[in-house]
Amino acid sequence: MSIKVQGTTVISDGSVFYPLNTVDRASTVSISSGTLTLDLQASSIFELNLTSNVTSLTLNNVASSSGTNVTSFTLITIGDGTARTIAWPGTFVWPGGTAPTITSTYAKRDVFVFFYENTVWHAFIAGQNL
User: Fold this and answer.
1) Is residue 96 part of a domain?
2) Does the CA dihedral 46-31-58-108 come out positive or negative?
């Protein structure tokens, strides 16, 4: 049995299925005393003006990932003309084992995509110096 809830969202046998083309909530976030806090319940796309180094990254309200359910988010950084760094937590795994250098050019954007599997955040560069 399937029930159409909204648009193309469907509940079938107790599972909720969303359309492939969804609208995500975007939030502008800021650094406070070196700490960047991302609330994954409030948004899945975060835009950050890099005005200082990020010395601590905190993720709040991370949904549990199990079976085919995956938690993911996108972080867009915007350079301010000064070289900045982000201290990625040890649970963030980058291809090749090395986190990227953040673009420092004023108003240029880097886009990073993350998804959570078991105890690891898989981290990817979607685009840099955009």
Assistant:
1) yes
2) positive
Q: What are phi and psi of 98, to 5 degrees?
A: -125, 125
Number of CB atoms found within 10 A of residue 101's CB? 11
What domain range is 121 assigned to?
23-127
Give pTM, 2 decimals: 0.81
- Which residue(s) pair with 111 in the sheet? 76, 127
Instruction: Measure CA 60 to chain center.
Output: 12
Q: What is the pLDDT of residue 14?
A: 54
Give tens-digit pLDDT for 15-37: 555 555 566 778 999 999 999 99
13-44 as b/e, with b when 16 or more CB fall inside 10 Å? eeeeeeeeeeeeeeeebebeeeebebebeebb
pLDDT in the model for residue 26:
87
Contacts with 105 (C-beta within 8 Å, 6 or more apart), sequence order: 79, 81, 129
- Give residue 21's identity as a one-letter amino acid code: N
Number of domains in the chain: 1
